[in-house]
Amino acid sequence: MYPFSYMELLTYFSDKKKSALTHDDEIKIFNNYLNYGGFPGLLAYDYPDEKITYLTDIYNSIMLKDVIDIEKISSVILFERLMEFIVCNIGKIFSANSIAIS
Question: Residue 60 has what pLDDT?
Answer without folding.
Answer: 87
